[in-house]
Amino acid sequence: MDTLREYLSSLVIVAAVAGLLSAFSPVSGTMKKYINYAIALAVVIVLLSPLKSLLNVISSLDNLIILESETRDKSYDEEREKTDKWILEKSQDTIKEGIKILLYDRFGIPEEEVEVELELDRSDPKAVVIEKLRIQLTGYSMWKDSREIESYITSLVGCECEVVNG
Q1: How far is CA 122 from CA 127, 131, 150, in A?
Q2: pLDDT score for 69
Q3: SS3 32
């Protein structure tokens, strides 16, 4: 409200001064032309002065929008990274459980006697590629044929498999 009052008062003052200068200016043609030019320039400057503050507001809004966008991008990237990590962990757990089930179905090895470790290829973060499987057998399952288990799992998964007893 104060800004509007200041704007209107400066406009009235410039208009009054312009009227006085125009009224008391010499009558000669060239000098009157320059005085009218200066008066018109002063009035235009006063009329356009709110644009400066408007441009400042727009500029600060742009900065705010850019800052918020950067903040949103960072939080999105953090959430995406957490989600990718969670998906990778769940995929590993699912693969481990699947291998335990396969070993039980094919060789009768109870799940509690099997420990599975995975080595993943981390070159592509969007793909779960198994580089190596390590299967540790405990209990009575240690007496199963390790080479047969290795070849079976290798043929299914398509990666190196190591079966360790104990």
Answers
A1: 8, 10, 23
A2: 66
A3: helix
Whether the CB-CB separation of 166 and 147 falls below 8 Å is answered with no
For the chain, give every residue range classified as CATH 3.30.300: 84-165
Asked whether residue 35 carries a pLDDT value surpassing 70, the answer given is yes
Given pLDDT bands bounded at 50, 70 and 90, which one contains residue 4? confident
Written out in words, the top-level CATH class of the domain with range 84-165 is alpha beta
Beta strands at 160-165 and 114-121: parallel, antiparallel or unpaired: unpaired
Q: What is the DSSP letter of 2?
A: H
Give the ranges where the chain is alpha helix by DSSP (H). Answer: 2-24, 29-107, 146-157
The overall average pLDDT reported for the chain is: 80
Q: Provide the 8-state DSSP code for 120.
A: E
